[in-house]
Amino acid sequence: MSIDPELIIYGLIFVAVLLLVEGIYLTVFGKSISLNNKVSRRLEMLEKGVGREKVLEQLRKEMSQHLGSRSIPIYSLLAEKAQKANIAFTPTQLMLVMAVLCGVAFLGLTVGTDASLAIRIGASIATGVGGVFVWINGKAKKRMSLIEEQLPDAVELMVRSLRVGHPFTSALTIVADEVPDPLGTEMGMISDESAYGRDVGEALKSMAERMDMQDMRFLAVAVTIQQTSGGNLAEILHGLSKVIRARFKLFRRVKAITAEAKWSGVFLSIFPLLALVAINVIHPTYYDDVRDTAVFIPACLVVAAFLVVNVFVMKSLVNIKV
């Protein structure tokens, strides 16, 4: 059994595209844009001497620019994920990065493979656009996961601040200063917006809708109700932190229980494709006897349709709503 070296080259080029886009991102915006940075990006920008108003303007621009560009045909596939990932690239810059990566992939395919021009063009476009999509999707998942983990601790920090006598706006400032990114910058923006006159409940609700996070909606509703009806906000938030932790624990438990089923679904979806590739690698002439028959193409289309349906069916079976 021998593996076609061109398949390895295609895989290496795709990995190189992922590493290149991450390198470009860190080079342009620095380490502060990284999600594992201990100092939030907002604080790092303030420490560099940038005015508070300009920092707020820049962060708000970054956090709202992607959904406004959903009318762009190709970019519409990335807009929602880029919004959740809070990609600092503008839509124009991201499209330019895609074009550069497509060019790099085409160059690599030209040097490393003997494929025809049409195949190289198609594969380079798929690699450039697909690489950016995979990169953004990974960023979005990581960022949303981190915010979900940070939120209960941030709410409890608010509770402790309120109990020692701080107003809620000061509690938000403490969270923004003490909690690392990504939640630190988000809370810092709300703190700055409230300082410039925006309603805190409205700012929290806007953030919850932008990130599409249910726990953040709970926080926004709790603060809004307390502002309109009164009550002990510290006790309300203390109860909310318990609810968020319980939900987070339940989500993790469900994820652990369904892990085997999800991986089984992935395997059953990918195995036919892997089997097809293996057959062509081990025995390239396996389909020669039936390739020219009248039913070969219709049969391939039917099998492809069943494979697509299988992906959606398996995904629906293991997608448990809590």
TL;DR?
With 322 residues, the protein is mostly helical. The protein contains 13 helices and no strands.
Named CATH architecture of one domain: Up-down Bundle
Q: What fraction of residues sit in β-strands?
A: under 5%
Helix and strand pattern: HHHHHHHHHHHHH
> Residue-averaged pLDDT, rounded?
84
- Kindly provide the name of the CATH class of one domain: Mainly Alpha
- What structural category arises from helix and sheet content? mainly alpha
Q: Calculate Rg over CA atoms.
A: 25 Å
Global morphology: elongated
Cα-to-Cα separation, first versus last residue: 46 Å
Q: In percent, how helical is the residue content?
A: over 70%
The number of distinct β-strands equals 0
**Continuous helix count:** 13
Q: What profile does the largest beta sheet have?
A: none
Q: Fill in the CATH topology of one domain.
A: Receptor-associated Protein
What do you see in this structure?
The protein has helices at residues 5-29, 41-47, 52-64, 79-85, 91-112, 117-163, 168-178, 183-195, 200-211, 214-229, 233-257, 259-282, 296-318. The chain has 322 residues and is mainly alpha-helical. Among the domains are: 145-243, Receptor-associated Protein (Up-down Bundle), CATH 1.20.81; 258-322. Helix 1 crosses helix 6 (117-163), helix 3 (52-64) crosses helix 8 (183-195) and helix 5 (91-112) crosses helix 6 (117-163). The longest helix has 47 residues, at 117-163. It is elongated and about 80 Å long.
